[in-house]
Amino acid sequence: MTKFIITKGVSEYRATIPSCVRPSDTVLEIGFAWGTTTKILSHYCKKVVGIDKGKSFFTAVKTYPELEFHQIDGFSISQVLALPYSFNKVYIDISGCRDLFTTIKILKMYESALNPELIVIKASKLKRFVSQCEVLLS
Ligand SMILES: C[S@@+](CC[C@H](N)C(=O)[O-])C[C@H]1O[C@@H](n2cnc3c(N)ncnc32)[C@H](O)[C@@H]1O
Predict the structure, then answer these.
(1) What CATH code is carried by the domain that includes residue 21?
(2) Ligand 1 lining (C-beta closer than 6 Å)
(3) Ligand 1 atom index nearest CA of 74
(4) Residue 111 lies inside a defined structural domain of this protein
(5) Is residue 136 included in any domain, yes or no?
(6) Number of structural domains, the chain?
(7) Which residues does 32 contact at the CB level (< 8 Å), separation at least 6?
(8) Contact predicate 61/38, CB 8 Å
């Protein structure tokens, strides 16, 4: 079963890495921007791949030529599945204040497509909503 960690802000998002990522992990980061978090992830895992639909691809490749980046929209799941890796952890940062529907859509999409152990997402609205919820265990 996939575990979800919902964070607010980039510091909280990055702070999960030392405790959540292991040297045997293959990690996908969706929304690498300039590649800063992808680089941090690379210190903790076996392999990390960053995808981003924006124009920062060339900057990231120039800054971190040792890392693997692809210009792919995170919602194009078929393109992600075509990558030759079996990702067991996923980091998602496609802008923290997206609406709840979009955030939950991408979480469920990656849960069912990759069945990863863990998905960490930067999503302030979702974090606020979940903080208001109480789950009754039956
Ligand atoms: C806040 S920045 C990411 C910062 C980066 N994770 C870091 O820690 O430095 C958000 C990025 O998400 C990307 N993005 C937005 N929607 C996306 C989508 N559907 N698929 C892939 N990338 C997306 C944007 O192009 C942007 O570069």
Answers:
(1) 3.40.50.150
(2) 10, 30-34, 36-37, 51-54, 56, 73-75, 93-95
(3) 20
(4) yes
(5) no
(6) 1
(7) 38, 50, 51, 52, 56, 60, 69
(8) no
Note down pLDDT in tens along the chain; length 138 residues. 999 999 999 999 999 999 999 999 999 999 999 999 999 999 999 999 999 999 999 999 999 999 999 999 999 999 999 999 999 999 999 986 578 999 999 999 999 999 999 999 999 999 999 999 999 998
Cα end-to-end distance, the chain, whole Å: 18
Ligand 1: which residue has its CA nearest to atom 15?
Answer: 94
- Which is it for strands 3-7 and 26-30: parallel, antiparallel or unpaired? unpaired
HSE-up (13 A, CA, CB side) for residue 6: 16
Helices (H) and strands (E) in the chain, counts: 7, 6
What is this structure's pTM? 0.97
Q: SS3 for 119? A: strand
Domain that holds residue 83: 3-131
* Cα 56 to Cα 71: distance, rounded to the nearest angstrom: 9
Q: Does the residue 138 lie in any domain?
A: no
> How many whole angstroms separate alpha carbon 89 and alpha carbon 79?
17
